[in-house]
Amino acid sequence: MRTRFASDRGLTSRMVVTMFLLGLLYVVFVGVLVALGVRALTVLVLAGGLLLVQYFLSDRIALFAMHGREVTPQEAPELHGLIDRLCALADMPKPRVAIADSDVPNAFATGRNQKRAVVCVTTGILRRLEPQELEGVIAHELSHVAHRDVAVMTIASFLGIVAGLMTRFALFTGLGGRRSGNQGGIPIGLIIVLVSALVYAVSFLLTRALSRYRELAADRAGALLTQRPSALASALVKVTGDMARIPTRDLREAEPFNAFYFAPALAKGTSLATLFATHPPLERRLEQLADISKQVGRG
Q: What is the pTM (predicted TM-score) of this model?
């Protein structure tokens, strides 16, 4: 379903490559487990069932986990009106609208497609941002839906769990012994743990790399749609700066969902290497928005 959001071939190619590499990785992983004698089919059926649940119910699961609830136009007229205008401008179906009762200033979009999408904002971000700044944030989130990277991230993030499931299944079914049945044999349990850890690590790095790029793509598409990159930049600075004033307990509760948030919720005193970050550095995002401002200014 086409929209007026700026297309991003770089994002599309990265999503395709990431999913291909993850698929290849798990084919190799299953092959290794089968060679070691693990009944991988049982685990794959279980993991496949969980993946389907995650895929088809991702919107409900995310709202429940992040304490969000859908709101009607009567309950949040200004928010609905803003999203109505942006969807008309982008020529895309209007997603469901939700609000999470949290002082952490943030927003996220989830759902397997445009028709099942939901955009959720926190009460904290509603209190802090001006209308034009909030418009930039919502445009950013709608671009995630339009580019379909929400669904890809849902699947990619879940695949890393499969390695853990297979490891536990293999160990709990008694495959922690040695391959030859004596003290000099190969420790199968140890091999499974090491292979699973490697698979998880590679999956983690692939999804993090995709996550960082998709945030830049959403910034770009949202800024071009609204033609107000400075408003989005102002929102980024304000949200990132106010994170430092949020209680550590609230930030830690939000951290597991960083990959889906507009801006990462990092607890005080913590820092992550760029390689492991879910979002690009603030400076990189502001630099890109400054370049877009120059392009918009030139007409």
A: 0.85
Residue 152 has, within 13 A of its CA and on its CB side, a CA count of 25
118-157 tens-digit pLDDT: 999 999 999 999 999 999 999 999 999 999 998 888 777 7
Question: 133, 141, 253, 255: which is the annotated catalytic residue?
Answer: 141
Is 70 marked active-site?
no
Each residue of 233-271: pLDDT tens digit?
999 999 998 887 777 777 777 776 777 788 887 644 445
